[in-house]
Amino acid sequence: MRRFIFTRLWQTALVMLLVSFGAYVLIGLMPGDPIDLMITANPAITSADVARLKALYGLDQPLVLRWFHWLWSALNGDFGYSRLFTQPVTALIGPALINSLELMLASWALSLAIALPAGIYAALKPHSFRDYGINLAAFAGVSIPPFWLGLVAILVFAVSLHWLPAGGTGQLDDAQGWQSLRYLVLPVATLTIASVGSHIRFVRGSMIEVMRQDFIRTARAKGLSERGVVVRHALRNGMMPVVTLLGLEFGSLFSGALITETLFSWPGMGRLIYNAVIGSDYNLAMAGLMLATLVTLIGNLLADIGYKLLDPRVKLS
Amino acid sequence: MTRQNTRTGKPIPASRSASPWRLAARRFSRHKLAWISLLVLLLFAVASACAPLVAHWLGTDAQAVDLFSRYGPPSWDHPLGTDELGRDVLLRLLYGGQVSLMVGVSSALCAAVIGTFIGVIAGFRGGWLDGFLMRFTDGVISLPLLPLLIVLAAIDPGKLGIPRDVINGESFSLYRIILIIALFGWTTVARLVRAATLALREREFVLSARALGAGPGRIILRHILPNVVTPIIIATTLAVGNVILMESVLSFLGLGIQPPVPSWGNMLTHAQEFIWDAPLLALWPGLLIFITVIAVNFLGDGLQDALDPRANTDHAPATGQDDPQTAQ
Fold it and tell me: Any transmembrane segments, and where (chain A) (predicted)?
């Protein structure tokens, strides 16, 4: 087990290294690099000035060297300055992380609170009327475009009914206590509807798979009540893939929800990354992308470890 | 035409000549939702293919701006009204349908080709190449999809040395989005094909083909690929829905299909500004995306039941459609 974690950590570091290089190259290809912006801002600039500026910022060096330089600074905790927000990148990421975490945890909990009972309930009688209905709802949830769902939610609950705010966190409106919770309702509902469909299908699939196993038949043959079969035997085994799912989604708790956050002006990681990319804020985009990758990879690792801890039959390679 | 017994000349009863494909068709026909979905998709395809005809009847085109009739109500000239620039909404929806369906199908096909290629090589060759390719696939799967797609969609192709007049061409953003989505979408097919190839490689008919002197190319083309085509079809169908969602998200964020070419996603880009003036405008494109994607998903589900009766659809599906990394 320890060896497995060790190997996987090495692999994660390797993937991070590769992704950081790839992202560095890609972000360098985005429009509007700093020197270009200076050229457009100042028509009197000469090509000698440009060359000098490039030398000053180290942009005349080969790509690999520049990446190495970025990597070295990043490993020392220096991600540079954000051009868009004129603040150090590290100062921007902290609050955004907390905002994302708040939003994602709420919708995660809500989605699971719906998906677990619904998925299990559907799985206990596959191909019945209730299974059909729950499945249909799950398909609808999987297929609905999340940004449109958010738009419709704003249209109905903010524009028409004036029940809830259309966006923001309420900090600007000085909302206190439970008043600030009202700002969470629409984004959390949107995120929940967008994710609950795949959660339901996952739980249902995993439960149906377990209910077919021999040990379930044995438990029934022993004369156990159906309730006992489900609670004592099926649930424990059926929830194992769900733990994997939780691990796989762990990363999104920190990397946020790009579309929903942008739509509802929720100042989390997803919106930060989107703004950085749209505004050609190289340093911020790079840091955001790296963080999103790191938390996703850690989530994958946690999923594997959790699976192994719960099911000793699983062999780790 | 009924088939005849070659010796007696009597027609063979239809029930006996049922080929696997006909059996699949029979199973599919029992799946009512899949049938309705297929019809809906065909209807959408035909309607959007007829867009130029509709434009002719209405006497306008999808990009004709008329600032005097912004947010117009439905009328004979504009059956679904006009948008924020006074363009005909129905026409833009139809042309947007062309874009969505085309991007969905071609990107899913590209991804299927890449995935099949990688999967077959990994499964057939095995050894270190298999290990390397599967590690690579795992790596791609574990990446945060949406942020990376956005960066890829935001890069300036001019910096890659692609000439400006190509980039500014109308359909450039179309090909670009197809390619970008395919670049991340091949992993499901690759895994499925690899697993199937690994199993097939040891089967007797492959062994006998090898014993008869067939080279690897022939074995792959004649013996492996025809046997993995079913999972590829199912996974690709389900992928079409995901691609359409992805395209609409990217276009909505202003990074996909570039205006003036309409797509269901970019028709909603400014929805938050006009939602006060013309709420219905924000309704149609999203509704069409929703109907199309859910129809594709039902179709995929029906195809899975029909083509793969032994594999139970009740399993936690391995076909990627229930990928936890949904676009949020």
Answer: 12-30, 105-124, 136-163, 183-203, 242-264, 284-303
Contacts of B282 in chain A (CB under 8 A): 148, 151-152, 155
Give me the interface pTM, i.e. the ipTM.
0.84
Residues facing residue B103 across a β-bridge: none
Which phi and psi (to 5°) does residue A222 adopt?
A: -70, -15
CB A266 within 8 A of CB A104: no
- Residue of chain A nearest B274, judged by CA positions: A155
Residue of chain B whose Cα is closest to the Cα of A287? B147
Alpha-carbon span A154 to A6, nearest angstrom: 47
Give pLDDT, residue B271: 74
Closest CA to A20 of A298, A293, A307, A304: A293
CA nearest to B271 within chain A: A151
Looking at chain B, how many residues does it have? 328
Read off the tokens for A274. Answer: 């989107």
> pLDDT tens, B29-43?
777 888 889 999 999
Look up the pTM and report it: 0.84
Q: CA-to-CA distance for B51 and B176, rounded, in angstroms?
A: 23
Select the residue of B151, B152, B301 nearest A285 (Cβ to Cβ): B151
How far apart CA B262 and CA A289 sit, in angstroms, is 30
Which two structure tokens, joined as six digits, stand for A41? 């801002």
Q: Which two tokens stand for residue A32?
A: 């509007």
Residues A143, B322: C-beta atoms closer than 8 Å = no
B211-265 residue pLDDT tens: 898 888 888 888 888 888 888 998 899 899 999 999 999 988 888 888 788 888 8
| DSSP assignment of B219-262 | HIIIIIHHHHHHHHHHHHHHHHHHHHHHHHHHHHTTSSSPTTS-
Question: Which residues of chain A does B152 touch, with a Cβ-Cβ cutoff of 8 Å?
Answer: 26
Q: What are A103's two structure tokens?
A: 């939003």
Contact A125, A131 (CB under 8 A): yes
C-alpha pair distances (Å), A68 with each of A64, A300, B80: 6, 27, 56
- CB contact at 8 A, B244 and B103: yes
What is the tens place of the pLDDT at every residue in B102-115? 999 999 999 999 99
Token pair, residue A204, equals 């249902």
Which domains can be identified in chain A, with CATH numbers?
Answer: 1-87 (no CATH), 90-310 (1.10.3720.10)
Report how far residue A135's alpha carbon sits from residue A200's, in angstroms, rounded to the nearest whole number.
8
List all residues 6 or more positions away from B314 whose beta carbon is below 8 Å from its beta carbon: A126, A204, A205, A208, A209
Q: Are B247 and B103 in contact (CB under 8 A)?
A: yes
The answer to whether A52 and A39 have CB atoms below 8 angstroms apart is no
> Could you count the other beta carbons within 10 Å of the beta carbon of residue B235?
27
Which secondary structure element, helix H or strand E, spans residue A88, and what is its range? strand A87-88
Whether A145 and B155 lie within 8 Å, measured CB to CB: no
Which pair of structure tokens corresponds to residue A205? 């699939």
**Burial of A61 per CB tally in 10 Å (0-12, 13-18, 19+):** middle
CA distance linking residue A54 with residue A69, whole number of Å:
15
Beta bridge partners of A26: none
Tell me the three state secondary structure of residue A87. Answer: strand
